[in-house]
Design goal:
Layout (H helix, E strand, L loop, with lengths): L2 H27 L9 H41 L2 H46 L1
Amino acid sequence: MSALAKKFEMISVAAPKRAARLAEVISIARPAEEKEMSAAKRVALFLASPFIGLAYIAAMPLVAAVALAWFGVRALAAKTPLKVKKLGMIAAAPLLGLGFIVALPVAGVTALGSYALKAAEKAYAAGR
């Protein structure tokens, strides 16, 4: 028997065992109670799918432009002296500051709301 025939015989003998083991692993990994998707959810996904696809199509040029700019900046930064990198950081600082100006009030209000809810929960528990 040739080496190729022996390998084929080994594979054909081991395949059912592997398939049975794979089925066992899949049945273990899958939760016992799989919830079926409701008809309303299926209809909602069916109706929303064109808009989701449209969002992907509309976002693709923006994603491509950002990726192109990112790769270009990385390639330029690898070949440029330190002064150019510092100028780039100086140019990016206002945008970073603007991002913090927009994001930090939202984070502050969220933290304040969290503390207020905890205090209200304690007051409610103490009042019982």
